Amino acid sequence: MSVDLGDLLRGSGSGPRSPLDPDDIWVRGRRRRRVRLALTSTAGVAAIAVLAVVPLTFLGSPQPVIEPVGPVEREEPEETTDDGDDAVDVPAEESDEPDPDPLDEAGPADPVTEDDGPVDEPAEEPVEEPKEEASPAETAVAPGPDPARVAEPCARHEGGEMRAFIDVVAPVAEQEVTNAVDLVGCASVFEATVSYRLTDAAGTVTEGFTTATAGGPEIGEFRETINLQGATAELTLEVFWMDASDGSERDVQEVTFTARS
Q1: Which of 52, 121, 184, 236 has a CA that sits 20 to 30 A from residue 147's CA?
Q2: Is the pTM of this model over 0.85?
Q3: Are 157 and 221 in contact (CB under 8 A)?
Q4: Looking at the domain assignment, is residue 76 inside a domain?
Q5: At a CB cut-off of 8 Å and minimum separation 6, what does 174 contact?
Q6: ∠ at Cα 177 (175, 180), nearest 5°?
Q7: Domain, as residue range, for 232
Q8: Are the CB atoms for 164 and 189 separated by under 8 Å?
Q9: CATH number of residue 171's parent domain
């Protein structure tokens, strides 16, 4: 509300103005001043009331809960296993103790040995089998003719080729005899005549002939006991048949044996 000072000085109405009274002017001015102060005080009280109501309204309304904000920790990337499952990240507790040495957890290490290269193993010595010594009662047995072949000297030649041959069955090589030797064999020769000759290192000891059971082309066995004439040591017996056309010796068979006294 504004008051025009001119109106106050001039007065109200359109009538003639009364002479100004200094006291009246002072009273009016003081009144107007009080009015202004009242208005100003009213406005101030209203402002204070508003300021008082606003906090109460603010405090009466539900307030959001603000949690205290701590230091921001950086999240470590989670480890994953080979199967694709997320591994649980368990924070390790801080400790003043030093981290364990992985070598200590693995246990004592194997002692380190120097490699001197391949070790030559000693060669195994061959084990000699004990030899069986012949007892004094045992004596070496000299070779001898096969009794089965001596019994049937022509058994192997039955149904053979029709050709001349002589097969001596006894004696055999390295056989030992005394005084006489038995001549046994099978033959298919001209006129069934089988000739023989006994020699030693000095020459002929004895010679002669025997007759087979059959002449060529058939086969027959022959048997003859030859006297050694007192000869000893190594002897050679020659058995053959004579070719009638030229008198040559054919199919000569030689057997070397030993004569004992």
Answers
A1: 236
A2: no
A3: no
A4: no
A5: 142, 143, 256, 257, 258
A6: 130
A7: 147-260
A8: yes
A9: 2.60.40.2550
Task: Report, in angstroms and rounded to the nearest whole number, the Rg of the chain calculated over CA atoms.
Answer: 78
φ, ψ for residue 43, nearest 5 deg: -65, -40
For residue range 194-245, list pLDDT tens digits in order. 999 999 999 999 999 999 999 989 999 999 999 998 888 899 999 999 998 9
Beta strands in 201-248 (DSSP E): 203-211, 220-227, 233-242
CB atoms under 10 Å from CB of 3, counted, come to 13
Where does a domain end: 14, 39, 60?
Answer: 60
Nearby residues of 237 by Cβ (< 8 Å), 6 or more positions away: 171, 181, 183, 196, 197, 198, 226, 254, 255, 256, 257
Residues 106-141 pLDDT 10s: 555 555 555 555 666 666 777 777 676 655 555 667
Residues 6+ apart with CB under 8 A from 107: none
Characterize 236-258 residue by residue with b for buried, 16 or more Cβ atoms within 10 angstroms of its Cβ, and e for exposed. Answer: ebbbbbbeeeeeeeebebebebb
| The residue to which tokens 């100004």 are assigned | 20
- Measured from the Cβ of residue 106, the count of other Cβ atoms closer than 10 Å reads 8
pLDDT tens digit string along 85-111?
A: 554 454 555 556 666 665 555 555 555
Alpha-carbon gap, residue 233 to 250, rounded angstroms? 27
Report the mean per-residue pLDDT for the chain: 76
Residue 113 lies in a domain: no
